[in-house]
UniProtKB/TrEMBL annotation:
Name recorded for this polypeptide: Uncharacterized protein
Origin species: Effrenium voratum
Classification of source organism: Eukaryota, Sar, Alveolata, Dinophyceae, Suessiales
Superkingdom of origin organism: Eukaryota
Length: 144
């Protein structure tokens, strides 16, 4: 039999959707960065029009904001406000490789204020999670 910690729990659709969104948007962001860097080395032609990003990002819809908060609550069953890689893996809702990647991605986004409080360096807070979701989806906080 497979050890308990390796058995994947039945997925929760909301968690799957948010993790999928995070990963897909992060991949798109990386691909865009690579194409921008590659464009620097292409032969120059006549000036062409460039696509400009919006100056003001659209607000995240209320339902999406609530969904992100609910997913964080599911991933943090002890309601500590802080998720470490081992705790994330222990939920068995996300495969270990994705847990590792998410923690690497989100731990890099950990706020300076959290680091100054000497919080564990291998985890991320709810604010870090929400900030990263806003960043990758190119949306802004609903209260801003």
């Amino acid at each position: 039999m497979c050890p308990l910690e390796y058995k994947v729990q039945d997925g929760i659709a909301e968690v799957d959707a948010v993790v999928d969104c995070l990963l897909q948007h992060q991949v798109a962001k990386i691909e865009q960065t690579i194409s921008q860097k590659a464009a620097l080395f292409e032969p120059r032609r006549a000036a062409s029009t460039q696509k400009m990003d919006f100056v003001l990002k659209p607000k995240v819809p209320g339902a999406t904001w609530t969904l992100w908060q609910e997913v964080f609550a599911i991933l943090d069953p002890r309601n500590t406000g802080w998720i470490t890689n081992p705790a994330l893996q222990s939920t068995r809702l996300i495969c270990p490789e994705v847990c590792n990647y998410m923690c690497e991605l989100l731990c890099g986004a950990a706020s300076v204020a959290v680091r100054q409080q000497e919080a564990p360096s291998d985890g991320f807070s709810k604010e870090d999670f929400l900030r990263k979701m806003l960043e990758v989806t190119n949306l802004r906080h609903p209260d801003s």
